[in-house]
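WARN retry 2 of 3 for item q-0093 after timeout on previous attempt; input resubmitted unchanged.
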Amino acid sequence: MRRFLLWQVVLIGAGLLLTLLAAVIFLPRLVYSELSTTDLQQIIGADKRIELQNARYQLQSEFRGQLLQGFGGLFVLAGVAAAWQQIGVAREGQITDRFTRATDQLGSDKLDVRLGGIYALERIARNSPADRWTVTVLLAAFVRDHAAWAVGSPDGPLHPTAAIDERLPWLQSRANDVQAAMTVLGRRPKSLEPWSLYLSRTDLRSADLSRDHLSDAQIRHSNLARAWLPDAFLERTNLTDTDLRQANLRHAHMARAVLRGAHLQEADLRGTDLHGADLRGANLWDARLEGADLTAVLTDEDTLWPEPRPPQL
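OK item q-0093 returned
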């Protein structure tokens, strides 16, 4: 099969070469044809006839030179295109190697190696738009695996917990790799894919997610108690049954977020945009709502509000 393809390439190349050679030899003669015997007889003087003939030959020679220059330019362009293609192939190979090494690093038992893999994947996502969604899925899976909040499983945790463990250190202190993965996910460049980020059933207590871009994400049944989320982008994010007690959500962007059955006791929601958010069954007891945008929110008889109840409701 390879020999057949090789012969095809050789024959095509030989055909193109013969075509170009024929064009260089015969095309100038067609464009600037030689004077016929009848035309020459009408010209008085041998010197004049020789001069005209030489002029024709000169025009043919110049046209032939122009053809050779044009064909040479085409060969140069073809060489540049081939070189560019080779560079692209080499670049894809380098990205694949880097991706493989970074993925292997995520499975290391050493924290610094895992951190290196996380930031290597972030760099790949920035340099290669085609790999952005793959990197996003991989890092989200890393978070779900290393910070699982197994709500509903036989040995799963009580959700929400009976009390908030205020002695629990920041996520960066107890799980630096998970915090790094969330930081990378929160500042990830836009992907070509329309799918949402999946982080449901994760333990992100006391995580620093300030100004993170988590819009349209799925973060259902998770634990974000005492999380730091000021100015975070959570538009249309699904936070159903998520524990957000004592979370700092000041000036967060949560328009049309789904907070059905969410636990928001003592959460700081001052200046938060909750326009059109779904708060049915949500518990906002002792939450701070000064300056929050609560227009068009969805509520029901199970929605619990702080006292005094916000005046705009």
